Amino acid sequence: MPYFADLILPLPLDNRFTYSLTEEEAQFIQPGMRLAVQFGKNRIYTGIVALIHQNPPEVYEAKPIHQILDEEPLLTNDQLKFWSWLATYYLCTEGEVMRAALPGAFLLESESIVKLSSEINTDFEELSDDEFLIVEALQRQSSMKIQEIEQLLDSKKVLPILNKLVSRQLIDLNQEIYEQFKPKEIRFVKLNPAFEAESEMHKLLDELSRAPKQREVLFTYFSLTAKSKKPLKVKKLLNESGASAGVIKSLIDKDILEEFYGEVDRVTFTGEINSHEIKFNQFQEKAFNEINQNFSEDKVCLLHGVTSSGKTEIYIKLIERAINKGKQALYLLPEIALTTQLIKRLQNYFGDKVLVYHSKYSLNERVEIYNKVLENTEKGKIVIGARSCIFLPFRDLGLIVVDEEHESTFKQFDPAPRYHARDAAVVLANMFQANIILGSATPSIESYFNAEHNKYALVELNRRYGNVLMPEVEVVDIKTAHRKKRMIGHFSERLIEEIKESIKEGEQVILFQNRRGFSPIMECNTCGHSPQCPNCDVSLTYHSHNNQLRCHYCGYHIAMQNQCMACSSNEITTKGFGTEQVETELKALFPDQKIGRMDQDTTRGKHAYEKIITAFENEEIDILIGTQMLTKGLDFRKVSLVGIMNADNLLNFPDFRAHERSFQLMLQVAGRSGRTQKRGKVLIQTYNPHHQIIQQVSTGDFKGMYAEQLEERYQYQYPPYFRLIRLTLKCRDYSKTNEAAEWLARALENVFDRYVLGPEFPPVARIRNEYYKNILIKIPKKQSLGKTKKMVHRILSSFRAIGVYRSVRVVVNVDPQ
Ligand code: ADP
Ligand code: ZN
Ligand code: ZN
Predict the structure, then answer these.
(1) Nearest to 614 by CA among 376, 340, 385
(2) E strand or H helix at 774
(3) Residue 613 — pLDDT band, cuts 50, 70, 90?
(4) What is the DSSP string of 737-771?
(5) Burial level of 37, CB count in 10 A (0-12/13-18/19+)?
(6) Is pLDDT at 784 greater than 90 in this prediction?
(7) What is the DSSP code (8-state) at residue 121?
(8) Where Zn(2+) 1 is bound, by residue (predicted)?
């Protein structure tokens, strides 16, 4: 009997692909292992075994496999099931899920480019001959293709060797697009063994009697190493002895101390644990008990707790319970909320049990974390990270925390799978029969709706910890202020007064300016022209720090112009205002204050974000201006005033979630104010002081906002009453985009009738010279979601079979945000 393996290949193929196995191979191979196989003419890919069976494929002859890459499965069965669910639900392929789910270093293929790891420090003696040849070749040339390595070794079977080198972190794959992570090397010293005997030690100390500082350092060294003979960090020796680096260098030069460098495990914790005991207040206690009650009934829990009510402490306790039962715990949160502050809090409590999985980590670090989770080691019981953490190979997941569950960045926008990590986490928890808690100060309408309809359990925390009051909110009508000339630039007199007051009291201020859709653009006062991006249908935005006009979609840029490009007039102004302009105005208003700015431009480098936060914490900054980045998970003690520069640009965004989002954003920003005893203040500047959302923000009226938005969603047929699938067609040819969109919309209308909207150009209809057109499918609650998706899938297949539309790509977005 022949044997076959169905493989998932990292390609947008609808089906798994079947390869033939020898009996021996079939005995060894298990689902979840990687195999290198040929696909297409001459290409080698890494595939994942999904199934082993004995049924030959019907329409093609199965090819033999190329090589086996793993000795143990790299994926668990649960992961395979989860991938399959994701592909079906989000209308993408398992191959696309595979690309998103596995660290790139696991996906060796013939197109891979191999480089020497930047962190290489190995004993070459340990390498096999073949490994040595590769490493040596890579030391001479900066990178090699797989083919070149095959030639080098004169063998076709190089992938397993490379694989070993990857797992030992000696080489990197396809690394260039990632930021390189600096090696974390730490300097250690150790006493020269020649002086270890007591007599030798005394002799040495006598000899050093005329070098008292060096003697002093040695005494410190002895006392610090009295208990353990482990090498000592130079930094520690410096700190404890108070000596200068020069003194230590002299000891090294005299061969008394030996110096060497060691690598520390980057992804784990190196500090000390000082886990305090958490003592809940009565409200936390009650919430905690309710959560556990709901968990015991296998319910998804929604925790609605106002900002600073102590939700994080509750999560910590829940995590502790889960790991005490020997389970793994996953703490998911949006990328921007993944701050050092929070990570430190968890590490202080759980020490090196916490692993952090971050998009800024290199491929090697991801591999390291992946393996730790797969091995289910004590060190990796708790994983904290952003959305892609749901792809880690959990063995025995007991708890998932989804913090800031309302955040739209849990949804992956591009590329496929366009999954929502919160929703996917609910499915993942269900597969493991794990508990899951969704938490927020401003829950999403969908989640709250689920709670209201008993799909989730609701637990509430209405008070801030330590009886801190919710901040007082004041709305400033800037329309009137403008008329009465009570504005200086974008600052109302009220805001200026309040800033002065805070500064006088020695407190800090946060000013929030939303960037989205509201960056400064250049406009001609004479003819009204504003410079456009040649590749996209948007105006270029002005960046004062490098005096450029830039496109936010494709990065196109030109120098700022002094004359109108259309009519040569010199009468040009910049319209709209961003964080940069707030900063400029603020510097003029408060020349003596230290002002910081946090937005995408000032936080580019790996640690830039952290630096600004730390500077603000250390009160090296008095007033911090920022975008969305400021809203999440930060706990600043001395902020007494939060100013929202302009609420209207949030409210006027053309999107059915705009009002919900504005409410969430403003309330979250407001939550940064007054986290200690003194009551904080929030000032909202707006042209529409009577807008219902502004009113709801100022009274913290979540339920009012929810009820009103729900009514609108019902009326206009949006979630949670209707589900949405958005199809976006993209093509460089304008009329082809239109024709194809018409065809597709008609085909969908044949089945879904009036629940198909469009085709329609989105607000930005051309990006990077591609035209965009959207079709929206609305799915009523009573209509089967599964059947609908099958039908959409079928229609898309017919569409893709039409030759003239081959150049049109269709992006499918299920539950678009
Ligand atoms: P949230 O996550 O709801 O915004 P946090 O958990 O960050 O709130 O709590 C707000 C502040 O109150 C933090 O500084 C936290 O350390 C403190 N806090 C909350 N609960 C407790 C507790 N039970 N004991 C001591 N401090 C607490
Ligand atoms: Zn002009
Ligand atoms: Zn552009």
Answers:
(1) 340
(2) strand 770-780
(3) confident
(4) HHHHHHHHHHHHHHHHGGGEEEEE--SS-EETTEE
(5) buried
(6) yes
(7) -
(8) 524, 527, 564, 567
How far CA 595 is from CA of 360, 542, 583, 635, 669, in Å, comes to: 27, 21, 7, 19, 18
What does the DSSP assignment read for 357-377?
Answer: E-TTS-HHHHHHHHHHHHHT-
> Ligand 1 test: best mutation among 283, 308, 468, most atoms within 8 Å of CB?
308
* Structural contact between residues 359 and 386, judged by C-beta atoms closer than 8 angstroms: yes
Q: Which residue in this structure is represented by tokens 């020796």?
A: 237
| Tokens of residue 568, six digits | 């040569």
How far apart CA 519 and CA 213 sit, in angstroms, is 59
Name the DSSP class of 181. Answer: P
Which band of pLDDT confidence, cut at 50, 70 and 90, is reported for residue 181? very low
- 460 CB near ligand 1 (under 6 Å): no
The distance from CA 418 to its chain's CA centroid, rounded to whole angstroms, is 14
Residues 583-594: pLDDT tens digits? Answer: 889 999 999 999
Q: Is 311 in the pocket of ligand 1 (CB under 6 A)?
A: yes
Helices 146-153 & 129-140 angle (0-180, nearest 10): 130
The residue whose CA has the least distance to atom 9 of ligand 1 is: 310
pLDDT tens, residue by residue, 230-279: 678 888 888 888 888 888 888 888 888 887 765 444 444 444 555 567 78
What is the pLDDT, as a whole number, of residue 803?
93
Angle between helices 159-167 and 146-153 (to 10 degrees): 110
Q: What is the pTM of this model?
A: 0.81
Contact at 8 Å (CB) between 477 and 322?
no
Q: Read off the pLDDT band of 118 (50, 70, 90).
A: low
Q: Is the dihedral of CA 784, 786, 787, 792 positive or negative?
A: positive
Query: If you average pLDDT over every residue of the chain, what do you get?
Result: 87
Distance of CA 184 to CAs 64, 246, 530, 681, Å? 43, 23, 48, 42
Q: Which atom of ligand 1 is nearest to the CA of 671?
A: 4
Judged by DSSP in three states, 383 sits in strand
| Residues 39-60 pLDDT 10s | 887 778 899 999 999 999 999 9
Pocket test for ligand 1, best of 276, 306, 311, 312 (most atoms within 8 A of CB): 312
Q: What are phi and psi of 76, to 5 degrees?
A: -85, 165
What is the three-state SS of 146-170?
HHHHHHHHCCCCCHHHHHHHHHCCC
The confidence band for 219, taking pLDDT boundaries of 50, 70 and 90, is confident
With bands split at pLDDT 50, 70 and 90, how would you rate the model's confidence at 182? very low
Mean pLDDT over 187-205 rounds to 82
Rounded Cα gap, residues 695 and 477, in angstroms = 12
Tell which atom from ligand 1 comes closest to the C-alpha of 461. Answer: 3
Q: How confident is the model at residue 121 (pLDDT cuts 50, 70, 90)?
A: low
Alpha helices in 225-324 (DSSP H): 234-241, 245-253, 282-296, 311-324
Residue 301 marked in a binding site: no
φ, ψ (nearest 5 deg) of residue 411: -90, 125
Secondary element (H or E) of residue 792: helix 785-800
- Beta-carbon neighbour count of residue 655 at 10 Å? 12
Q: Strand runs (DSSP E) across 160-290, as ranges? A: 171-173, 185-191, 232-233, 257-263
Q: Which residue has the higher pLDDT, 355 or 361?
A: 355
Sequence-separated (6 or more) residues with CB below 8 Å from residue 714: 721
Q: Worst-scoring range by mean pLDDT, 11-15, 63-67, 753-757?
A: 11-15
User: What pLDDT does 229 receive?
Assistant: 63
What does the DSSP 8-state code read for residue 59?
A: S
Predicted confidence at residue 670, as pLDDT, reads 86
User: 197: Cβ–Cβ under 8 A, 6 or more apart, which residues?
Assistant: none
Q: Give the chain's count of helices (H) and strands (E).
A: 26, 37
- CA pair distance 734, 731, nearest whole angstrom: 7
Ligand nearest to the CA of 337: 1
